[in-house]
Design brief:
Order of helices and strands: EHEEEHEHEEEHEE
Number of strands: 10
Strand order of the largest sheet: 5-2-3-6-9
CATH topology: YbaK protein
Shape: globular
Number of helices: 4
CATH architecture: Alpha-Beta Complex
Oligomer: single chain
């Protein structure tokens, strides 16, 4: 299946989700954040999670359990950049390393369209959520995020 997507440019200073949505007229309900998480083990285990901006990633229960570790947390900005080559505000599942799984909260898939990072703070990708399931390593997960924030 092939889906149509748009890549839109943005001012890097406006790339953070809430600021981007306000500046460019997008809805927070249509925005999805790509978040790199780390399971505290030797060696560390990483995953990329995609959740709606209006929800909160359940890192302490759902993510930790899926990673199979006793502790999990959000990866630091430096660790995210080192692992993905992307900075916070531009992280995208479309350029994720093949070595890490991508878990998409099922609520993301209910939207008509979503806006996600474009790989840098200079752009975003807009399209139907179906664009995500075409990526290798993607798994849609129920209850990865906690309800609206």
């Amino acid at each position: 299946m092939t889906v149509d997507v748009d890549v839109i440019g943005c001012d890097p200073a406006l790339a953070d989700t809430a600021t981007f949505c306000e500046a460019y007229g997008y809805s927070m309900e249509d925005s999805a954040n790509a978040i790199v998480v780390v399971g505290k083990s030797e060696p560390s285990i990483y995953a990329m999670c995609l959740v709606l901006a209006t929800s909160r990633l359940d890192v302490n229960k759902a993510v930790r359990k899926r990673l199979g570790t006793k502790k999990a947390s959000f990866a630091s900005a430096d660790a995210t950049a080192e692992l993905t080559g992307m900075t916070i505000g531009g992280v995208t599942p479309f350029a994720a390393p093949a070595t890490i799984p991508i878990w998409v909260d099922a609520a993301v898939m209910t939207r008509d369209r979503i806006i996600v990072g474009g790989g840098s703070r200079r752009c975003k990708v807009v399209g139907p959520p179906a664009m995500l399931v075409e990526l290798a390593g993607v798994e849609v997960v129920d209850d990865l995020a906690l309800g609206p924030t």
